Amino acid sequence: MSGLGALYQDLILDHSRQRHGESEPQPAAASAHEINTSCGDELTVRVHLDADGQSVQSLSWNGDGCAISQASASMLYDLAHGLTAAELRTRIDAFRDMMRSRGSIEGDPELLGDAVALAGASKYVARVKCAMLGWVALENALRQLEVPTA
Q1: What is the pLDDT of residues 39-68, one digit of tens each?
Q2: What is the DSSP letter of 149?
Q3: Reduced to 3 states, what is the DSSP secondary structure of residue 47?
Q4: Most buried of the four, 36, 96, 103, 105, by CB within 10 Å?
Q5: What is the number of alpha carbons within 13 Å of residue 139 lying toward its C-beta?
């Protein structure tokens, strides 16, 4: 394994063990629950927007699943705070493109932060759904708020 690959693997394992943003369910402006029927991973994302309804004020999640799904949600949590719905949509789309690339897109660290470490998972179709779980849940929660994301 290359030095970068080992670093990314360590980053994924660190996020899956020390999950940023994971908390017990609490009231939220919107929440979405997603299940990966292929493997049974589950994740619920809860989001509050600021008073003007434009930026993420708080985000939390809880779930159960593999290291990839849990690390991905942790990385998304780190990325989302303070972003507008449009900025989040750009990042969700960039992450989805990376995950669908089967390893041909490394991802932009400026847009995706630590989540670029998950690019290697895109080579394994069964892992793409795991990595996307939290991102799809956040996307669905934002839709509930009728926040224009494009």
Answers
A1: 999 999 999 888 887 888 889 999 999 999
A2: -
A3: strand
A4: 36
A5: 15
DSSP codes joined into one string, 49-109: E-TTSSBEEEEEEEEE--HHHHHHHHHHHHHHTT-BHHHHHHHHHHHHHHHHTTTS----H
Cα separation, 3 vs 109, in Å, equals 17
Element housing 6 (H / E): helix 3-17
C-alpha span between 150 and 137 (Å, rounded): 17
- Enter the pTM of the model: 0.89
Can you spell out the DSSP letters for 94-147? HHHHHHHTTTS----HHHHGGGGGGGGGGGSHHHHHHHHHHHHHHHHHHHHTT-
